[in-house]
Design a protein that fits this description.
This protein is an alpha/beta fold and 303 residues long. Helices cover 47% and strands 22% of the residues.
Length: 303
């Protein structure tokens, strides 16, 4: 019987579950993917802590996902938390509670490890690419990784995520033109922290990247995003409240609320690396967690 594995990552906007098995060619065959949007980063940004109410929500989400993964005969369950948890004053207690809920240790993933794991997940589906940028846009940060022939040559974490940008600069719903200009300027300044490089091509992953194609009449997590696409998305998101966007495009309301912030990050990535477009990747951190485990076992968190 093919070995099944599962990975749960607790991000700043979302909690994701991936159940997969090796596909025999170095990649993964997805068997189940599900997501909730507790928006942990919003709570941490407001209070500095996870807090009892948000932790109860996370425990329920993670515990349920762990049960469903084991119900699918996943032999290994990996659990990790990223940017919002890294910033939470009560992270040790929260990590312990999530570990108990899942029945496996919840590992705190460092920014560098998150970047490496995301790169591994995306490149697993992008064989043959010589010079590439992988940008993983999360709720609280964006990881930028430069690779050559499948090998990482530079990486860095930028403190700009779709949720954080929304909370800091896009308070109106829909955002005003003034707010959008302020967000665009701030994100470009932050993106200067990303590693230098001149990649031939780029991939973008994360919830924002996978959702924006829906606004363009495409399939979720498909195709590419260029500057004209981003302009169309920006104009649409500035023209109607996020609740209406969610209804019209059948998007989770919490996701719709942070899309405008994500658009500014995608364009800042294009500017930073002088790229015309970015391919959208459904693969990312969770895939990288599983692939790393298959290669190095319990040391997977080191990327």
């Amino acid at each position: 019987m093919t070995r099944r594995l599962a990975a749960i990552d607790v991000g700043s906007n979302t909690v994701h579950l991936l159940v997969a098995e090796p596909d025999g060619s170095g990649g993964l065959r997805e068997l189940r993917h599900e997501v909730t949007m507790p928006r942990l980063g919003k709570a941490v940004q407001a209070t500095g802590s996870v807090g009892a109410e948000k932790l109860a929500q996370l425990v329920a989400d993670v515990g349920g996902m762990a049960d469903r993964a084991r119900g699918m005969d996943a032999a290994i369950l990996l659990l990790g938390a990223t940017e919002a948890m890294r910033r939470a004053a009560d992270r040790e207690a929260a990590l312990a509670a999530l570990s108990e809920a899942a029945g496996t240790m919840c590992r705190l993933i460092t920014p560098d490890a998150e970047a490496r794991l995301s790169f591994r997940g995306v490149i697993g589906a992008s064989a043959g690419v010589r010079s590439i940028l992988v940008a993983d846009i999360g709720g609280g940060s964006t990881e930028c990784v430069l690779g050559e022939d499948g090998r990482i040559v530079a990486l860095g974490s930028v403190p700009a995520g779709s949720g954080a940008v929304t909370e800091s600069w896009l308070q109106s719903d829909p955002p005003t033109a003034e707010q959008l200009r302020a967000a665009a300027g701030a994100v470009r300044r932050l993106m200067a922290q990303a590693p230098d490089g001149t990649p031939e091509t780029g991939r973008v992953t994360g919830g924002t990247a996978n959702t924006l194609p829906l606004l363009l009449g495409r399939g979720e997590g498909t195709g590419e995003l260029d500057r004209a696409d981003l302009r169309r998305c920006r104009e649409l998101l500035a023209s109607m409240p996020s609740a209406e966007v969610a209804t019209v495009y059948r998007i989770e309301p919490s996701r719709a609320r942070v899309l405008a912030g994500g658009v500014e990050i995608v364009e800042a990535v294009l500017d930073r690396y002088a790229l015309d477009r970015l391919g959208v990747s459904h693969q990312g951190l969770r895939d990288g967690m599983i692939l790393a485990y298959l290669e190095v076992g319990d040391d997977w968190v080191e990327g």
